[in-house]
Amino acid sequence: MGARPLLNRRLDGHGTTIFAEMSALATATGSINLGQGFPDTDGPEEVREAAVRALRDGRGNQYPPGPGVPELRTAIAEHQQRFYGLTYDPDTEILVTAGATEAIAAALLALLEPGDEVIAFEPFYDSYAACIAMAGATRVPLTLRAPSFRPDLDELRALITPRTRLLLINTPHNPTGLVLDPTELAAIADLAIEHDLLVVTDEVYEHLVFDGAHHPIAALPGMRERTVSISSAGKTFSFTGWKVGWVTGAPELVTAVRTAKQYLTYVSAGPFQYAVAEALRLPDSYFDGFRADLLHKRDLLTDGLAAAGFRVFRPAGTYFITTDITPLGEKDGIEFCRSLPERCGVVAIPNAVFYDNADAGQSLVRFTFCKRDDVLGEAVSRLQQL
Ligand code: PMP
Ligand code: GLN
């Protein structure tokens, strides 16, 4: 095939995702997997049954409509109204996607031109870097630094150039657990308006905020017309394999994202779309119970990791905990995570892979706590051997 590399150069350096690598390591070594973020218990039985019913009744077994089934788009609109007072037209302002992952890809492919700059919080969720690269744009990291991981808003202002097209934000933030507060969101909104920037906001952990509250940036004055909001059923309802996500935004933005999305998957997850419509209408007790359960697990793992000698940054949101391994006499998170299964039968994720400025994340390691209590307890007792 000659000397030319097969992989498009835009994807150079974007090899196997860290989640795939670490989950494979967990399987191969029989380790407890606190790496990739997926629960070890499925979501509500009635939601699972709703999917079975849809399959049996022949709803969604053939191509659903491109924007998503009307039942789900209506349920998403109701959810945005119920939790945030945001009004969206199910026909023009909502798009169902193959998970948040496709929503991110479609949004970035639709809204960016080669040469555009995208400012994103670093550490960034791995698909951001790859999708910005596939769009031919350039990522510009705003580094979130321990211990608070709060964004430096002066630094953000200084990163904006005439080429900046888009701010890519994520709150609650994976992997740090940062939840942007109203002051930070207002400052980000002001900058977006002042510089006429688009905002893409990834809010897949919207129902996992333990300290403070989740505030969608789209609710701020002047933001609706420039914001693409993304969420997903995977995290909120503990069905990460269903891959049902969505985009909400002004009609022109959603139309642009849909134009890209229709050539990625066209449509997906027909019967699951009906089940997620029912899930979104679950009573408050479901959402409160889910959060309370994960809050308990957060504290269980936070305390356990601290007792095992890690420096722990207690997350305000998400189901991830970022730790620093320096107190254990370690400094390289990648090496640490590669050797951890052999040393004590636990898998974690090195935050370094989510940084351009690798120094800032070198000694940081992420653990997920969306696992059964007995599994978390066993992981902690294994980690105490370190
Ligand atoms: N964004 C963030 C911040 C995530 O952690 C994840 C992983 N669930 C995704 C997007 C992808 O979500 P989905 O599984 O719905 O594609
Ligand atoms: N969002 C999950 C995490 O951060 C992983 C999803 C994936 O493997 N792409 O662990």
TrEMBL record:
<keyword id="KW-0808">Transferase</keyword>
<protein>
    <submittedName>
        <fullName>Pyridoxal phosphate-dependent aminotransferase</fullName>
        <ecNumber>2.6.1.-</ecNumber>
    </submittedName>
</protein>
<dbReference type="InterPro" id="IPR015421">
    <property type="entry name" value="PyrdxlP-dep_Trfase_major"/>
</dbReference>
<dbReference type="InterPro" id="IPR004839">
    <property type="entry name" value="Aminotransferase_I/II_large"/>
</dbReference>
<dbReference type="InterPro" id="IPR015424">
    <property type="entry name" value="PyrdxlP-dep_Trfase"/>
</dbReference>
<keyword id="KW-0032">Aminotransferase</keyword>
<dbReference type="InterPro" id="IPR051326">
    <property type="entry name" value="Kynurenine-oxoglutarate_AT"/>
</dbReference>
<keyword id="KW-0663">Pyridoxal phosphate</keyword>
<dbReference type="InterPro" id="IPR015422">
    <property type="entry name" value="PyrdxlP-dep_Trfase_small"/>
</dbReference>
<dbReference type="Pfam" id="PF00155">
    <property type="entry name" value="Aminotran_1_2"/>
</dbReference>
<dbReference type="GO" id="GO:0008483">
    <property type="term" value="F:transaminase activity"/>
</dbReference>
<feature type="domain" description="Aminotransferase class I/classII large">
    <location>
        <begin position="32"/>
        <end position="383"/>
    </location>
</feature>
